[in-house]
Write a structure and sequence with these properties.
heterodimer, A: Heat Shock Protein 90, 7-stranded mixed sheet, 6-stranded parallel sheet, 19 helices, elongated, B: Four Helix Bundle (Hemerythrin (Met), subunit A)
Chain lengths: ~650, ~110
């Protein structure tokens, strides 16, 4: 029976010999010099028998058989391996779908075996038999290529172990080799990938660029790095294209590196740097504003002392005082974001704070039902209570704004170990944490909004309603406390914020709010600040309170005055940020002069941790500008008591 | 070289064999040049591959002298002893010339 036959071998002598032999027998024979060309021919030619060499460029014999067996129209084709390797080692050709195997030998012997195999094909029509290589007894030499084969296997093992995806493609872009890592990166089987157009794996928008690179490498024979990154199967990858120049062919090795994680880290770093830069700016603005508000507040306090409630200016002065308070809340948000306002750390019990704050909040938003699920035996956490209240208020206000028609609001606290925190983009420090989960049933957010919600001045609220500082300061405060914040949300499905604060082993301390009325005080205060207007108003306020006041316009002057009058000075009210000599150094020098000196720090701002550091060195107290007469009185009395 | 005899040994027509030899010359000649430059450049890996290729085709065609010489070059290259291959290189060159002459004599 005459047959349609395809012969696939990379040696022209074998191809010529086979076509001579087969055509002489009356068969129709086509030839292909490698696996890729064979697949091209098989698109339009369905043979009865295919002779296939094992070692070939551009898709070897074994892979070619596997691909052929997956093509429905070629399932019945009779596959005969024709290989020199068969002379060297046993080949389990049935395992990759071949029907017979002939060891290459001299032409006369090969001719005999080829014809015998065709005869066998006539009888078997696609039935697989136990493997038996034909012609081994006739080969002219043994053990020639076995060493080469072991070298090849060794290289295969190395390629299979690579962490990078490695592909070999033809200059036209057809894939002819792929290692396991590439297969897993692309997420297609090897059979699907071989002979596939490489550029087709990428987004339509990237394809032309890749084609241009392939053309360039073909012309210049220089390696090209495409750090893009390019999207491939949902991952970000970088490409390295390396030209391979063989004696007989050219191809391109593609090294695929998954850079998704690296790119994510880079984006995170840029985001962190951006937040840091804006934080510095925000902190600076807050500092200047607080000093400015301090002057306004101080003067208003003094004026209010001179007018009674019937005075026509009384209400206006109260209004100014109220606005100063609103202004100072805004700067507190800025300082929170800049992580530069954390001063009064002490162990607090979060459940109590959550209950108090949510109750106060609930009274203002009657259409929201608050549900609490607060853990018993919740750990304490070391925190600045005022700042944590600010965080809770920010989260509550946002949740309420997300539910304009009302809704449900869930507050849950729990103790968690760091191993349970599955944060995106950070590794929590080992230890125990207190978790507060705040969930609303509001409008939710899309992923673009989520990406930006912690950015300062980003708001989705209408003009005039949102400052864009609430969540930014929340983020800063939580970070400043060594904690973590996460958000989960979907458009139309509400939002959940998770707040992790490091647990403290210390028992909670109750705050004592003094409400002692202002009364005439006795004593001498050394007032130290570099700003004339602050000195002016503070001096007046202190005098109204009954103190004698000594004024120093900087650190050096403060030390001189203190040395002269240390016996009469009861307290130093010390600014932190001053030119030439800052509050920290002044404090240390004062302590050298008199270890008993009492110092109250005051600042509109603090270099990150500076106030805390001075406090840790034994300073007696801190007061945040702007302060009113009552706050100053209480702070001084608390120290001098 | 008696092509008729060789063809008869391989159970081929003389015409068929001369076509195969012609093809062999066309592939082996550039491989031989590549082999020589690999030896000059002390590129053992390339020399081994070229020798391996010449050996394979010569074996199929029953050109055992070329086959054996190429095999010895392949082995020497694998052990990086390129200085030992001079004689075998001459054998291959000589034999290829003989084939070339035989083919020319036919035409």
């Amino acid at each position: 029976m005459k047959k349609k036959i395809l012969v696939v071998d990379n040696h022209p002598v074998v191809l010529k010999f086979m076509s001579q032999l087969l055509e002489k027998e009356g068969h129709q024979a086509l030839t292909a010099e490698d696996g890729l060309s064979a697949l091209e021919i098989l698109k339009t030619f369905t043979p009865d028998v295919i002779f296939i060499d094992l070692i070939m460029p551009h898709i070897g014999g074994e892979k070619l058989c596997q691909i052929i067996r997956k093509v429905p129209s070629l399932k019945e084709v009779y596959l005969i391996i024709l290989s020199a390797i068969a002379a060297e080692q046993e080949i389990d050709y049935a395992s990759f779908g071949a029907n017979a195997c002939i060891a290459k030998g001299s032409l006369d012997k090969m001719a005999k075996h080829v014809l015998a195999a065709l005869e066998q094909a006539n009888q078997e029509t696609g039935v697989l038999h136990p493997p038996k290589t034909i012609g081994i007894e006739d080969v002219y030499a043994r053990n020639i290529t076995s060493e080469l084969l072991s070298v090849k296997k060794h290289f295969e093992i190395i390629l299979n172990s690579m962490a990078e995806g490695i592909l070999e493609i033809t200059p036209e872009g057809k894939i002819v080799y792929t290692n396991p890592k590439a297969i897993s990166l692309i997420n297609q089987t090897e059979d699907q990938l071989l002979a596939l157009d490489f550029t087709g794996l990428f987004l339509e928008s990237d394809r032309q660029g890749i084609k241009d690179h392939l053309m360039e490498i073909h012309l210049t024979l220089q390696p090209i790095a495409v750090n893009g990154p390019l999207m491939l199967n949902g991952k970000q990858v970088a490409l390295h294209l390396l030209p391979v120049i063989d004696e007989s062919q050219r191809s391109i090795i593609v090294i695929l590196t998954d850079v998704s994680e690296q790119k994510r880290m880079e984006a995170q770093l840029i985001q962190a740097q951006k937040m840091e830069a804006i934080g510095t700016l925000a902190g600076g603005i807050a500092h200047d504003f607080n000093n400015l508000l301090m002057v306004v507040q101080g003067n208003v306090s003094l004026m209010l002392l001179d007018v009674n409630s019937a005075h026509p200016h009384y209400e206006m002065l109260r209004m100014i005082e109220k606005q100063v308070l609103s202004g100072s809340k805004l700067t507190a948000q800025l300082l929170g974001y800049a992580r530069k306002g954390r001063y009064a750390l002490r162990p607090i019990y979060l459940n109590q704070l959550v209950t108090d704050t949510s109750e106060a909040f609930g009274r203002t938003r009657k259409n929201i039902t608050i549900h609490q699920d607060l853990a018993k035996n919740l750990f304490t956490c070391e925190a600045d209570q005022g700042q944590i209240e600010q965080v809770l208020m920010n989260l509550f206000v946002n949740a309420a704004d997300a539910m304009p028609e009302g809704g449900d609001f869930f507050l849950r606290t729990a103790n968690v170990n760091f191993s349970e925190i599955k944060g995106r983009g950070y590794i929590p420090k080992p230890g125990e944490y207190v978790l507060l989960t705040v969930t609303d049933t509001g409008v939710g957010m899309d992923s673009k909004t989520i990406d930006r919600i912690f950015d300062p001045f980003f708001t989705t609220k209408e003009l005039g309603r949102g400052t864009g500082l609430g969540l930014a300061s929340t983020y800063g405060i939580v970070k400043g406390h060594g904690g973590y914040i996460e958000v989960e949300s979907e458009k139309g499905r509400g939002s959940t914020f998770k707040l992790y604060l490091p647990a403290s082993g210390k028992p909670a301390q109750q705050t004592v709010k003094s409400s002692a009325p202002i009364s005439k005080a006795i004593g001498t205060v050394l007032l130290v600040d570099d700003e004339e207007v602050i000195l002016d108003v503070s001096e007046k306020v202190l005098k109204v309170l009954g103190y004698k006041v000594l004024v120093a316009r900087g650190g050096v002057e403060a030390i001189e005055i203190f040395k002269k009058h240390q016996d009469s000075i009861d307290l130093v009210l010390l600014d932190i940020i001053m030119p030439h000599m800052g509050g920290g150094e002044v404090f240390d020098r004062l302590k050298e002069v008199s270890p008993e000196v009492k110092v109250l720090l005051s600042s509109g701002y603090s270099i990150d941790g500076e106030a805390s550091k001075i406090m840790a060195r034994g300073c007696d107290g801190f007061i945040q500008k702007p302060f009113d007469i009552m706050q100053l009185s209480q702070s001084i009395r608390a120290i001098l008591r | 070289m008696n092509l008729g005899e060789l063809a008869s040994d391989l159970k081929l027509e003389e015409e068929e064999l001369s076509e195969l030899f012609d093809l062999f010359l066309k592939t082996a000649s550039p491989e031989l040049i590549e082999l020589q430059s690999a030896l000059i450049g002390k590129n053992a890996w390339s020399a081994e591959r070229m020798a391996h290729s010449i050996k394979g085709a010569a074996g199929i065609l029953g050109l055992m002298e070329i086959h054996d010489a190429a095999k010895r070059i392949e082995m020497a290259a694998r052990m990086n002893r390129l200085e030992e291959v001079e004689v075998d290189l001459r054998v291959i060159k000589k034999k290829l010339e003989t084939i070339d002459e035989a083919l020319k004599g036919r035409s």
